[in-house]
Structures are given as C-alpha cells and as structure tokens.
Amino acid sequence: MRRCAICGTETTHEICPKCYLERYSIYEFHPYIEIKVCPKCGKAYSRGWIDKEAALMDTILKNFTHDPEFKINSFEIENLSENNGAVQIGGEFRGKKLTYELHFELRQKFEVCERCSRLYGGYFESIIQLRAENRDIEEDEIERAKKLIDESIENADYPTAFVSKIVEKREGIDYYIGDRNLAKKIARKIEEELGGKVTESKKLSGRKDGREIYRTTYSIRFKEYRVGDIVKDGAKILLVTNAVKGKGVDLAGKSRVLKNPKVIVKRENIKKTFVVNVDGSVVEVLNPSTQEVVQIEKKTDYSIGDRVLYFEDKGRPYIFPDFDWK
Ligand SMILES: [Zn+2]
Ligand SMILES: [Zn+2]
After folding, report:
1. If you measure from the C-alpha of residue 15 to the centroid of ligand 2, how many angstroms do you get, rounded to a whole number?
2. Which residues constitute the domain of residue 41?
3. pTM of the model
4. How many angstroms separate the CA atoms of 270 and 310, rounded?
5. Are 215 and 137 in a shared domain?
6. Of 105, 148, 175, 286, which is most buried, counting CB atoms within 10 Å of its CB?
C-alpha cells in the first residue's frame, strides 16, 4: 500500500481514483451521431449497409474513446428516439465502480442503399426459368421452387441477392435474379430437389470497362412424368414412385429405374377400386366407372378387399397396389 500523492488516503496507485477522476477525464465522447439510413429497407451504413441497430452502435463506439485503465463492463443504448438517445456505461477504474449516462444527438440522413437502388431499378444478372416437359408446371412445383429461392436469398449476404422481377408466362415462370452466382446455385438446388434438367444460356447485355457483360439464363425443365403417374418405358408399364430420382415399380411390384418413360396415364386420371376375388392367375376388381367385374392377370400378390389403382391402356385394364403420391 502507498498513499495518494494528493489526499493521502491509502491506494495502490500514485493518485487515488477519487483524486484522479476529479482532475482527469477517463473517456471522451463526441455526442453527435450521424448515420445514413436507407428509406426503402431501413438498413444503415457503417462498414457496409447493415442492421440499423448494429450501425448505430458502431458509430457510437467510433465516437467514444477511453483510458485503458477504465475497464468497460456494459455499454448500452437507451431512450433512443428519432433525434437523440443515451448510452449507459458501466465499468471500473482503479477498483472503483463507475456508471455514466452519456446523451447524444442523432442525425439520420436518408440515402437509398446500393441493394435497394439496384433492386428497385430492376437490376438483374440472371434469369431462372421454370418450365415443364409437355405439361404445365404444377402449383406445388412453383411453391417449392419459390421456397428454395427465398431461402437462398435469405442466406446470401451479398447486395445483389434479390429477385427484381417475376414474370408469369403461359409456358412457365421467370425469376429475375440480381446475382448470377446465386442464380446458378439456386438453379442447381431446384434441379436437385425437384428433378428436371438445367440448361444454361448466355446473352450479351452490354460492356463495362471494356469487358463484355453477359446475362445468364438458367432454364429448368421439369420432367413430364411426376410421382404417381403411369408411364410406359420400352415394353414395361410402370408406376412412378420417385420422379426426382427417376424410379418406378412394375406391375409385379419390382423396382425399376426409368430409362425412356412416356406418360400414358396422369395421376389425376387414375381411379381407385378394390379387389373382389383372387384365384391362381387372375385378380377380379370392380371397374370404377361401370361397376362391372373385370378380370386382370395376377402379377403380384393381392387379397380380397385390397384397394388398388385402376387404369386402362389401349382398352386393356391394369392395376397397381394402392400408392399415395402425396
Ligand atoms: Zn487522493
Ligand atoms: Zn435499402
């Protein structure tokens, strides 16, 4: 222990905290806080366009300096309003606990951020086209694709991660995407999760600093067949059990990989009926349209009362064990 050079109380330092604080200031604060705020999205600027709260804290911290011996334990913004606010600071100096409330004036300047100026200006680097082979796109496919697009945009942190335009056409939907790399990622993801095939095409859209600028279109073509459809693949009649992976089952219940399938019955046209009789090689079912008993060659095990899928191809009836594609 030593004694304070000024007041003589015992202290571990040359000058006790009380005398020190009377003579010196241990922090400096410039109480005019100025931030740029985007009127479109509400983000604010500080090392890039970020959440307003974080940008405000950043700017306040830039305006605040302190003695290295002043250990700060808490630093919080309070009573924030349009034009002013305060920071509550708690800390310790030479063993003495201190709290300060520092008021500041807030000046918000409105300026449209880079992302919003591009987004609202219709900027795009890429188009994602959703199409389907020989059929309309399903509502469900649009919803799932949209979810993948939204998620990818949410998880991307570059300023061009946005959809600037959506165009619905008779043959499908076009999404105008701000960023070409993101568009590529999204296209691959849709292909992976929904099935289909992506083709890429480029179109010259202009020049920038002597370089040619291309716009890339990713066209995703969903397969004609969907889960639950009946297809003919070579000589085989198959029920599609997984359209994304291209898998089906044949009339005997054996798994098959689809090679060159052609849709013969769409799932919405398949009716359900049930088995009324089974003997050695024949299954009898009710024709769901006429309620007449129809005999069908037995290709796999059926029992009386089983629900089955019923359809006809070229006038000939077929059944598959009941399958729920939903
Ligand atoms: Zn003293
Ligand atoms: Zn903005």
Report:
1. 52
2. 2-110
3. 0.71
4. 6
5. yes
6. 175
